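I am writing to request your help with a piece of structural work I have in hand. Here, with my thanks, is the record as I have it:
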Amino acid sequence: MPQWQVRNVMSTDVITAPADTPIVQIVDMLIEFQISGVPIVNEFDVVIGVVSWTDLHAKLEIVRPDRAGGRTRIRRRRRTRLRWSSATAVEVMSGSP
């Protein structure tokens, strides 16, 4: 049985976002590139966390666009104090990758 190596299954073109990226843009990236998470990097391009659909769903209510071509809408969940309109990636990311 052949052994799989990480290089055989890993992505080499990784999409990242700076820590101050608005979460609305993170949602757009996840949808556009059909990925489940975005590594968040600091000013030195060091990964400091990841924003995934799970992180977003834990704090936000994501409403998918309708078939008529509407935009994705985001509403904050009642229990969180996060303001989605001004929140950034660092506020919703899972830290310490």
Remarks:
- The first helix runs from residue 6 to 9.
- Helices lie at 6-9, 23-32, 53-59, 89-92.
